[in-house]
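Long-time lurker. I teach an intro course on protein structure, and each term I like to show students one example going from raw sequence to a predicted 3D structure in token notation. This year I'd like something fresh instead of my usual example. Would anyone be willing to generate the tokens for the chain below so I can use it in lecture? Attribution to the forum is fine with me.
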Amino acid sequence: MLNPYNKYDKKSLDLIEASAFRTEGSGLYKIFLDHAKRSSNRALKAREKERFEEEISESASSVLFSTLSCESIVSEYITHFEFSSSKVPDELLKLRSESDPLAKWKVLLKHVEPNINLSSNISYLKLSCLIKLRNCIAHRKARLLKANSFPEEIAPCIKQKIIPEPSEFRGTWILTILNHDVATWAYEAAKEWLDFAKNYVDFRDA
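-- Reply from a regular --
Happy to contribute to a lecture. Here you go:
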């Protein structure tokens, strides 16, 4: 596993290639989470300077990279497992073809802690809403909605105040939801979930 924080000279890389050794990056989830934090900080500064387009783009970046961090760590964990022990349990191998991030986390945590209850876990609920918000943004499907309303996928998250309720409506749901409060929330929700998961899963340098 290659650490993205390290530099590898050409001679080392040539030796790795010549040995037919398989490689993969490790620790990228940390880079993604750090990027989300920087984006949330920039979103706040943009808001203070009334640079609304910049606030929107940085908020979107925070949401996307926060979610990416929570997804990539699972993939990196399975690969690290394979790297260190060569044999990965079939149950975990199936996660590579699973497209639902929440399902991946549920299987992984159930694998290490069969009695864990996630249905009422607030960190898990935040992760669920974060993923739903990411999907609405990344898989953008422009649609006509009633004024002052949000897509049905994230409306319950806002109503239950899991996602911060916007203080003002900017004409469309996506311009409204992409604000500095949500940018900060996205980063904090991802970090909170990862801190929780690390109580059960030994990610090491995944």
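Some talking points for your students: The two ends are 9 Å apart (CA to CA). The chain has one domain: 24-197.
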